[in-house]
Amino acid sequence: MTSDAAMLSVALEEARKGFAEGGVPVGAALFGPDGRLLGRGRNRRVQDGDPSVHGETAAFRDAGRQPSYRGTTMVTTLSPCWYCSGLIRQFRIPRLVVGECRTFTGAHEWLAEAGVEVVVLDDPECAGLMTAFIAANPAVWNEDIGDEA
């Protein structure tokens, strides 16, 4: 599985699960240099009552310890927040695929400025899930991104 669209489909499956569970519909997956899935996850802040479980952190945790993140790709349905972007920089994940950044700008540009290869796919399903969630749950969304309503 090496195409960006194929990798996004794994993250999107996680986002759909999160949406069905009543959580913030952000999914992510971490892939190795050979395209092998290392880990996957979704934002579970609402479900677990844990503000640190974002899609990217869940995928990172699911991947477990790696000797190196050189050549890996983090795929996320939404532009990563500062918290998740910090994780990407800390572990020098060199490539990021973003499903969409219309509903939340995130910090993908900061990552690009730091030398991370960033690919934004502008996927309509990713944007649709977030648009529906934000419209139905504005207070939960604002809490998730650390914003005040």
UniProtKB/TrEMBL annotation:
Organism: Microbispora hainanensis
PROSITE patterns per UniProt: CYT_DCMP_DEAMINASES_2
CMP/dCMP-type deaminase domain mapped to chain residues: 2-118
One Pfam family recorded for the sequence: dCMP_cyt_deam_1
Protein name (Swiss-Prot/TrEMBL): Nucleoside deaminase
Superkingdom: Bacteria
